[in-house]
Specification:
By secondary structure, this protein is α/β, with parallel strands linked by helices. It has helices spanning about 10-15, 20-35, 55-65, 125-140, 155-170, 180-190, 200-205, 245-250, 260-265, 265-270, 280-285, 305-320, and strands at about 5-10, 45-50, 70-80, 80-90, 100-110, 115-120, 145-150, 170-175, 195, 210, 230-235, 250-255, 275-280, 295-300. The protein folds into two domains: about 5-125 and about 305-320, ornithine cyclodeaminase, domain 1 (2-Layer Sandwich); about 145-300, Rossmann fold (3-Layer(aba) Sandwich). The strands form two sheets. It has an eight-stranded parallel beta sheet, with helices on both faces. Strands 1-6-5-4-3-2 form a six-stranded mixed beta sheet. The chain is globular and about 60 Å long. The two termini are about 25 Å apart.
């Protein structure tokens, strides 16, 4: 009789997730990805409508941007024994209903037989591995010492980034901006930060800036960045969406994965920015680090290999508990 596949709820994932271990695992996964050790095709993205009306669906596909009700992502990857696929839905309007804008499920599989070995709810995992990757990049690309952090966005990613960044750098101040004043205030309370009335107010003088929004048009202007600032550009996962303006994108751009950034990131495509290196290349020492004092944009698309490795890490931890 077939054995039941283990199911890890969000609560169980959270219980078994070790943030420091996750940062270490993401660092190695990024090195392995850049070294060509992972099997990872580009993600598949399908727009969907709230109710599948053929005319509306066709219009949404043609528009290809914020008129889409939602997006369904399919992300398979393998790195060593970690074989997984992730299903993600992104529905920006969920924020108006006090629901998560991003939902995800991850299926781990046995690379020998192809059988499913575990199913994990992926919202917590996604938020934490995304922030862990930003923390890895910030650790590598910012000098030691206390930091002022700006969060442009007030959702779960702002909260996970605050937690992970505090593991790699002392944080003196966190400033939060959102188009929703009440959401910014609630997030600021949760992460021991302060809400700002404008994105510019949050960014001016910040050492680390995290763009963690659902924006389709720029919310960060390069003119606001202090020299030597580090930007974790996390949102805008579509070729027609942007969080950063052209001025910001004229700085040194580091990507989690070059091909993904060049084909999927509106910030890169529309600004015609050049990718200087992948973060994994810098971590491995195969490409030299940027000159000290450089202003750096780290474009993170969220790679499938990160999900596979994080899911395997959490599953192994759950078997020990």
């Amino acid at each position: 009789m077939p054995t039941a596949v283990p199911y890890l709820s969000e609560a169980r994932v959270n219980e078994c997730l070790d943030p420091a271990a996750l940062i270490d695992a993401m660092r190695q996964a990024l090195i392995d990805l850049s070294a060509g050790k992972a099997n990872q095709p580009l993600r598949m993205v399908m727009p969907f409508d709230a109710a599948m009306r053929p005319s509306a669906a066709g219009e949404n596909r043609a528009a290809g941007g914020p008129s889409e009700h939602g997006l369904l992502f399919l992300k398979p990857a393998q790195l060593g024994s970690a074989l997984a696929t992730k299903l993600i839905t992104l529905v920006p309007s969920n924020a108006e209903k006090d629901l998560p804008t991003l939902l995800a499920t991850i299926v781990l599989m046995d690379p020998e037989t192809g059988a499913a070995t575990a199913i994990l709810e992926g919202a917590t995992l996604t938020a934490m591995r995304t922030a862990a990757v930003s923390a890895v990049a910030a650790d590598a690309l910012t000098p030691a010492g206390p930091k002022i952090v700006a969060m442009l966005g007030s959702g779960v990613l702002a909260r996970s980034h605050a937690k992970m960044l505090r593991l790699v750098r002392p944080v003196d101040e966190i400033r939060v901006w959102s188009r929703s004043k009440s959401n910014a205030q609630a997030c600021a309370r949760d992460i021991n930060g302060g809400a700002c009335g404008s994105a510019e107010e949050a960014v001016r003088g910040a050492d680390i800036v995290c763009t963690v929004s659902n924006a389709a048009t720029p919310i960060l202007r390069g003119a606001w960045l202090k020299p030597g600032a580090f930007v974790a550009a996390v949102g805008a996962p579509r070729p027609s969406w942007r969080e950063l303006d052209d001025d910001a994108m004229r700085n040194i751009v580091i990507a989690d994965q070059r091909q993904a950034a060049e084909q999927e990131s509106g910030d890169v495509i529309l600004s015609k920015a050049t990718i200087t290196a992948e973060i994994g290349e810098l971590l491995a020492g195969t490409v030299a680090m940027p000159k000290a004092g450089s202003t750096i944009i780290f474009k993170s698309l969220g790679q499938a290999v990160e999900d596979a490795v994080a899911a395997q890490l959490i599953l192994h931890a759950s078997l020990r508990k």
